[in-house]
Design a protein that fits this description.
325 residues, alpha/beta, Hexokinase, domain 1, 6-stranded mixed β-sheet, 5-stranded mixed β-sheet, 14 strands
Length: 325
């Protein structure tokens, strides 16, 4: 039995597989909250107790930089040591960056799992993956013969680059709140909520009183922004979502240039499927290819939104099932 998992800032998804199974054909699956949990070891033990499973190998994608099979998580107060977990659980434990795991999982997806944003001109070049959720993850996939080899990245923490006067103001506002400002400070669930707060402060768009109350009382205010933008009930939310999408497209284009991702760019994470109508509206793609002299290169690159929220689990399974031991 193989255990594969995706450990995010708010939840952990687990799946059990028989040796030799297809990486999208688990025996069982479960989801557990990560926020408030003392450690990854404790969450894995809880899953194993609930499932009654005794896996022979564990591979987990985790949100944060992984080095020497260890990770200090970015959005959780954990220092995870995969080798120590191996000793504690009595089974080999391998940690992968969560976007590296997602990148491995892309090979398992079919056309029904993807929504095209730009057809581009398909090529055999490199690929790239960007995913906004609790944080912002990025990965590159280097062309290696007939396959693509994922490379982990923490590019979501690179410096935010404003593109107009409003984004200059946004940078100044975020700098006052956080000091240094990365793309993750905007392109994430918490970032979307902060973007709404900024628009409120600079008085952009109409905000109905009932929406203001919902936003202020919500445990997940970003969900209120997305919902009220898409249903047309809040002008401010609509402007916020439009700006979020444009910044998302711009950073996806930055990543595509860095990877020279002529083989395509994938937009993953939990946020994209929830705001799909906004992503398909054209703002994302326009910001993606507005790169001056390199714009003609960007228009050639296919872009897809990944709909399957378990792609990182499938990727962890790909790695686990490929190990002959």
């Amino acid at each position: 039995m193989i255990l594969a998992g995706d450990i995010g800032g708010t939840k952990a998804q687990f799946a059990l597989f028989e040796r030799g199974a297809h990486p999208r054909s688990p025996v069982s699956e479960d989801r557990l909250p990560t926020a408030g949990s003392p450690s990854l070891d404790a969450i894995v033990r809880e899953f194993l107790a609930r499932s009654g499973a005794k896996p022979e190998r564990v591979v987990l994608g985790i949100a944060g930089p992984v080095s020497d099979n260890a990770c200090i998580t970015t959005n959780l107060p954990w220092h995870v040591d995969g080798n120590a977990m191996s000793e504690s659980l009595g089974v080999p434990v391998t940690l992968l960056n969560d976007l590296e795991a997602t990148a491995w999982g892309l090979q398992t997806l079919g056309s029904s799992d993807l929504v095209p944003l730009q057809p581009g001109t398909p090529s055999t070049g490199n690929r790239a993956l960007i995913a906004a959720g609790t944080g912002l993850g990025e990965a590159m996939l280097m062309r290696d013969g007939e396959t693509w080899r994922p490379l982990a990245s923490e590019g979501g923490h690179s410096d935010f680059g404003p593109r107009d006067s409003l984004e200059d103001e946004l940078l100044h506002w975020l700098r006052g709140k956080y000091g240094r400002v990365s793309y993750e400070r905007i392109l994430s669930g918490p970032g979307l909520a902060d973007l709404y707060r900024f628009f409120r402060e600079v008085r952009r768009g109409d905000e109905p009183a009932e929406v203001a109350l919902r936003f202020d009382r919500a445990d997940q205010p970003a969900a209120v922004v997305t919902e009220t933008a898409l249903d047309g009930s809040c002008g401010r939310s609509r402007l916020v979502l439009e700006r979020f999408v444009r910044i998302y497209g711009a950073e996806a284009g930055n990543l595509a240039l860095k990877a020279l991702a002529l083989g395509g760019v994938f937009v993953g994470g939990g946020i994209a499927p929830r705001m799909l109508p906004a992503l398909t509206g054209g703002g994302f793609v326009r910001a993606f290819f507005e790169k001056g002299r390199l714009s003609p290169v960007l228009t050639r690159i296919p872009i897809w939104v990944v709909l399957d929220s378990r792609t990182a689990v499938w990727g962890a399974a790909v790695r686990a099932l490929a190990d002959p031991h």
